[in-house]
Write a structure and sequence with these properties.
80% of the residues lie in helices and 0% in strands. It contains 3 helices and no strands. The N and C termini lie far apart (47 Å).
């Protein structure tokens, strides 16, 4: 069994990877805002439609 410190590090790494992947998706979506409509971006990138709309409002 892993000790608490090792478990905490593993959990932290998983969370960091998850956040990094989401940031990468957001960056790709930003690049597509001028080219595609919100529905197409959401489908292509795998983000929700509200997330794409939020990006567009901030762009």
């Amino acid at each position: 069994m892993l000790d608490a410190e090792t478990q905490g590090r593993a959990r932290g790494m998983k969370e960091g990877i998850r956040k990094g992947r989401k940031q990468e998706k957001l960056a790709h979506a930003r690049n597509l805002l001028a080219l595609l409509d919100d529905e197409a971006i959401a489908q292509a990138i795998g983000l929700t439609l509200p997330a794409i709309r939020k990006l567009r409002q901030g762009a």
